[in-house]
Amino acid sequence: MSNEKSPVPEWEQRFRAARVSLPDWAEQAPDRALYVSNSTGTYEIYAWDRSADTHRRVTSRPNGTTDAELSPDGAWIWWFDDTDGDELGVWRRQPFAGGPDEHAVPGVPAAYDAGLALGLDGTVVVGTSDDEHGTTLYLRRPGAAEVERIYRHEEYGGVGDLSHDSTLLAIDHTEHGDAMHSAIRVLRLADGATVAELDEVTGRQHPSGVACLGFAPADGDTRLLIAHQRTGRWEPALWDVATGTETALVLRDDQGREFPGDLSAQWFPDARALLVEHEYEARSELFCYDLATGGLTRLDTPRGTVSGATARPDGTVEFLWSSAAEPSAVRSTAGTVVLRAPGPVPPGSVPVEDVWVDGPGGRVHALVQRPPGTGPFPTLFEVHGGPTHHDSDSFAAGPAAWLDHGFAVVRVNYRGSTGYGQAWTDALHGRVGLIELEDIGAVRDWAVDSGLADPSQLVLSGGSWGGYLTLLGLGTQPDSWTLGLAAVPVADYLASYQDEMEALKSLDRTLFGGSPEEVPELWHASSPLSYVEQVKVPVYLSAGVNDPRCPIRQIDNYVARLEELGKEHEVYRYDAGHGSLVVEERIKQLRLEIDFTLRHLGRAR
């Protein structure tokens, strides 16, 4: 009898393989950088001295750490300290070379993070959000021991950026009450006076948002790079906050045509050019825009998705790239791999196919991956969260695991998704959840009619907003699905609103056009709990007990109703927040989902 252990399945290898994020570097010390990695089995912050090529783990917490920033001089590493994923915490800091952590800004209470800005001269601005006060911004001036409160409003907002000389502060805010379309206010820090305001929501029949992308990196330069939606999509422009003048950026492809999809930008360190990212149909590409000549040059990026990019002082651009078939790596336009995670490269996976399906609100884009063999296949519809997000042609261990088990995987960029224009993203008002499910239903019908999907083995699955749509879909489309997998979902929308973080309450009021007291019929119509009696198939739910986004009480309400009705279900609760940063916990969760699915579909492992 052999005592040899069976090899680790490829799907588990993908999860356990080390990953790194795009390194962030210090403006005055560009050889000092930070990145996030799971190389020890938990996602934590790492410091990288690029000149010596030495790496040091900065944080070590049971449930991981991902939010951090370097001071401009590279001397300090700031990181956000919450409790077991509850997202309520304070900023701490430690020396770049290592040493004890200290409370970075005494006087700022524990709260949800609403941004951080660190000035070259030592100026610090901390944004907080809480249920009692909404958004509060605190200022600590250079050399001062105490903090000042410089902004407070009940609606959601946050830190935009400090000007290079720390005299001006840009704030993204939603004081007008529309959390999907922000405005920008610029304050003079010397006296707190408003210098400029850009609001394209108040008094407008068709509101559009603006967002701060960053001040020019030069002293005395009052140009603010912004993003706007005036043309029905996101694109950048320059706004001189001192004079109020705006400069449109003429961005055209090599045929002289406007780019479809969304455009964003950031400054090159010399303030003479912009790094432009074009995002369209689940993929992205990079360009350099010369501000003096207006010339736009495409940078060499493979077909797939850029998950982050940064322009270095030497003029090169570093970017984190992957595709559905190929794992991520930090690359440079110089043609090198800048940073690769230690250990073996995870196994690749299956490329995606683009499918367009006619839906009730227009053509719906879906990404399809097929396992080997001939269909129809058991098929997993993996629904993305957000809802203002989108699935992309990028590497993901979860879908690859289902492909390894013989499932086709379909991901739908339903109305509400980003990257397809403002009208597509803004379409959710009023009939929240129900609109997205119309698009998912149209793609589901295509998958069956085309021979891809076995109609008797259709799994609806998702996390966060995707988990919400899963539960809502099982109740409102009970004959369309064979079973459902809902991770950290909204399950009882009214109870979720009562318990969730304030920023999400603002978003929900915008989506529904009012609070549960003001438009109760809309909230009831969009809550999965309203349709639990119609659920016909087995349901699997997983939830973090410390989750501030989809709180545990409202999930317990839904589970209790399933139990009362005798509906077949299983529940897994874990000690973290809105997901886990621990690799083995992620593997455990997916293994439970796979086991549940194979059991109920009568398929062998």
Describe this protein with a few key phrases.
about 600 residues, 8-stranded mixed β-sheet
Describe this structure as you would to a colleague.
There is one protein chain. This protein is globular. It starts with 9 loop residues before the first helix and ends with a helix. 49% of the residues are buried. The chain contains 10 helices and 36 strands. Helix content is 17%, strand content 35%. Strands 5, 6, 7, 8, 9, 10, 11 and 12 form an 8-stranded antiparallel β-sheet that branches.
Q: How confident is the prediction overall: mean pLDDT?
A: 95
Gyration radius from CA atoms, angstroms: 24 Å
- The secondary-structure class comes to alpha+beta
Shape, please? globular
Largest sheet: 8 strands, antiparallel
Question: Which regions have little confidence, pLDDT < 50, spanning 5+ residues?
Answer: none
> Can you count the helices?
10
In percent, how helical is the residue content?
10-25%
CA(first)-CA(last) distance = 22 Å
The total of beta strands comes to: 36
What percentage of amino acids are in beta strands?
35-45%
